[in-house]
Amino acid sequence: MSRTHTEVLVIGAGVIGSSIAYHLARQGRGVLVVERADVAVEPAASWASAGGVRRQGRHGAEARLAAEAIARWPTLEEELEADMGYRQGGNLLLAESEAEAEQLAAHVQRQHALGFSDVRLLDRRETLALVPGLNERVVAGSFSPADGQADPALTTRAFARAAQRHGASYWTKTICTTLLMEDQRVVGARVERGEPQEVQAEQIVLAAGAWSSELMAAMGVQLPIRTRALQMVLSTPATPGSLRPVLSALGRSLSLKQLDDGAFLLGGGWLGLPAADQRSYTLLPQHIEGNWRTACELLPSVGQQTIARAWCGLEAQSFDNIPFIGPLAGWEGLTIALGFSGHGFAISPAVGRAVAAQLAGQPTPELDDLSPARVASFDPDRLAAFLAEGPKAAVLE
């Protein structure tokens, strides 16, 4: 069996893994990335992501990473020397009743407490000035002007190409079958690349998203994540530029944005069904229709278009809906970065920087509340129920 040695082995070439590889390579470290398919292809989350670049509504544990990432996004295309389809049009969260307006006011105060002082509470008139044509029930909005959107596949490939320009190597169509252990330390991995090979490494990063659980299960470890097939719906093109901010609403499962060609892109947590082997998914027509209906109700002009296509991406949802980033207890030499639960894309630049810094032994307090060590505080019965629910029980009705 052939053997390869690298300083850092990154398992997974999605937007998180490729951002980590890029930041490590910039440090001058030897990096090898292994990816089971090609970079950002169906049904990976980094291919299917909604592409929102958002601080607003973040969990407090992610706030510092979100602030750092949002500050970097406006110059990231120049840094990575690539078109990533980035646009800073803001993020607008809507209230459609007086009760929701009160919730929205409290939400804005929470954003200020997290340091997002530019988030503003808007009345109906101000909200309609940003997005004309919203339904008559909209009474208020919370606007985060620094937020925006980008193309997930272009961004992932930009990080991968930039990592390679700085010296990282990528092995695609390479399946990682098991981790190599030596005296209670992870020292590499066995991979299938035409034939079995061993990769020895000083440090290993597992950032394989939904497929991370498969690898760790083979090692006798059940990660506190489950796979969700997150649905996206694309419309036929409308007039470009008619919707600038990304829209969501307190009372709706919806994320709505407009792409450069005028098409509307709908997400918001509607689910398909992942296949048992986690290689594909099944779309559910009633969820496509439900996602479309709620978008048309919020912004009636969407209904002037038709559905062009729909798809899903396989995403790892964590037990507490925030990621696990850092060393895995009892597995010396192994760092994990997974369980981003559908909102890792926006913070990927900061995650890559922070993980690279942590692996270099630098302080990373911004990762403290995302440490995998918090698993020890999870209620065992609730965690078991979460893992046992499976994909069908998680489907929105």
SSE layout and pairings?
Layout: E1 2-11, H1 15-26, E2 31-34, H2 45-48, E3 52-53, H3 63-80, E4 91-95, H4 98-113, E5 120-123, H5 124-130, E6 140-144, E7 148-149, H6 152-165, E8 169-171, E9 175-182, E10 185-193, E11 195-206, H7 212-218, E12 225-237, E13 246-249, E14 255-258, E15 263-267, E16 271-274, E17 281-282, H8 285-298, E18 307-318, E19 324-327, E20 334-338, H9 348-359, H10 380-393
Parallel strand pairs: 1-2, 1-11, 2-8, 4-13, 11-20
Antiparallel strand pairs: 3-7, 4-6, 5-6, 9-10, 10-11, 12-15, 12-16, 12-18, 14-15, 16-17, 19-20
CATH class of the domain at 2-53 and 153-226 and 319-385: Alpha Beta
CATH architecture of the domain at 2-53 and 153-226 and 319-385: 3-Layer(bba) Sandwich
Low-confidence stretches: 392-397
Q: How helix-rich are the residues, as a percent range?
A: 25-40%
**Most strands sheet:** 8 strands, mixed
**CATH homologous superfamily of the domain at 2-53 and 153-226 and 319-385?**
FAD/NAD(P)-binding domain
Query: How does the helix and strand content classify structurally?
Result: alpha+beta
